[in-house]
Design brief:
It is a single chain. With 125 residues, the chain is an all-alpha fold. It has 2 domains: 45 residues, no CATH class; 60 residues. The protein is built from 5 helices and no strands. It is flat. The chain starts with 10 loop residues before the first helix and ends in a 10-residue tail after the last helix.
Length: 125
């Protein structure tokens, strides 16, 4: 395994993303359309991957362990909160209110599209 001597040159990636953004843009490169936002999200991910991969392996392992620990703690907290019937009812009522507001629903659906494919629909109720 070779050690990296300095920062990674991402100029070719940035140039390719700039070309792709011009092809996908529907807002005149103002950063308002899904094409522009998606390309910028990919650009940020490429930079994060390059930065993480440039670190010594022990830092990568430590960061990965910290992320797994944080995710596990968050999941445990969510399980504890949702096991409380009163909190669960309040969360369900809030969800119904949000989904009944057309603008809030549109914003939530746009956020979910950006985060990835929708989860499988719940079975039961």
């Amino acid at each position: 395994m070779s050690e990296m001597a300095g920062p990674v040159d991402l100029s070719e990636v940035h140039a390719a993303l700039d070309r792709l953004r011009r092809q996908l843009c529907h807002c005149g490169l103002h950063g308002e359309c899904l094409g522009c936002r998606g390309v910028e999200m990919v650009r940020a991910q490429v930079e994060a991957v390059a930065a993480a991969a440039s670190q010594p392996i022990l830092m990568q392992v430590a960061q990965e362990a910290a992320m797994k620990d944080m995710a596990a703690r968050f999941e445990q907290m969510a399980e504890r909160l949702m096991s409380d019937p009163e909190l669960r009812r309040a969360a369900e009522e809030m969800q119904q209110r949000v989904m009944s507001d057309p603008e809030a629903r549109r914003l939530l659906e746009e956020l979910m599209r950006r985060l990835g494919p929708p989860p499988d629909p719940p079975t039961g109720g």
